[in-house]
Design brief:
There is one protein chain. It contains eight helices and no strands. The chain is mainly α. The mean pLDDT is 87.
Length: 154
C-alpha cells in the first residue's frame, strides 16, 4: 500500500513538471484529470499527513491558475475538507488555507461570484487567528536589536 502512495505522489510531481512546460492552449486536454488529482492529494494527506500532495497542487495553481477554473467548486471543497480533517497537523491545515488565499489573490472574480468559497476561506483564516497562543514569548517582548531600524516612525 505504501508503494501506491509513493506512485501517486510521483505522478503528481510529474504532472506538475509537465504542466509547467506545456503550452497553455493544450491544458484543456488534461482537464479530465483534475478530479483524480484532487482525490490523490486527499488520499496522500489521509494516509500520512503528507503535505507533498498539497505542495504539488500549490505549484500547479501557481503555474497555471486558470487550469482549475472549471473545477473551482471542487478545489474549494477539497481544501475545506482537508482543513477539517480531525487531528490533522497544523502545517497541512495552514497550507490548505494558504492555497485558497493565494488563489483568491490570483482570481478574485471567482471568489466574488461564489460566496461559499469566500466564506470557507474567511472561516479558515479566522481559525488560524484564534489559534494563536495567548502567551507572549520573551523573543516577542524583546526583539533583536535593530529589528525596526528601517521602519519609519509612526
Amino acid at each position: 500500500e505504501h508503494e501506491n502512495f509513493k506512485l501517486k505522489l510521483s505522478a503528481l510531481k510529474c504532472f506538475v513538471s509537465y504542466l509547467e512546460v506545456l503550452e497553455v492552449k493544450k491544458h484543456s486536454t488534461f482537464q479530465s484529470l483534475i478530479i483524480n488529482i484532487f482525490e490523490a492529494v486527499y488520499a496522500l494527506i489521509q494516509h500520512d499527513n503528507n503535505e507533498e500532495g498539497l505542495e504539488a497542487l500549490s505549484e500547479m495553481l501557481e503555474t497555471e491558475p486558470r487550469f482549475f477554473k472549471k473545477n473551482f467548486k471542487e478545489l474549494v471543497e477539497l481544501l475545506t475538507r482537508v482543513f477539517r480533517i480531525p487531528n490533522i497537523e497544523g502545517g497541512v491545515r495552514r497550507m490548505a488555507t494558504e492555497i485558497l488565499v493565494d488563489y483568491a489573490e490570483k482570481s478574485p472574480a471567482l471568489f466574488r461570484k461564489r460566496k461559499e468559497a469566500l466564506e470557507s476561506t474567511i472561516e479558515m483564516i479566522f481559525f488560524h487567528m484564534i489559534e494563536i497562543s495567548n502567551e507572549v514569548t520573551d523573543e516577542w517582548k524583546r526583539p533583536p536589536e535593530g529589528y525596526n531600524e528601517d521602519m519609519e516612525d509612526d
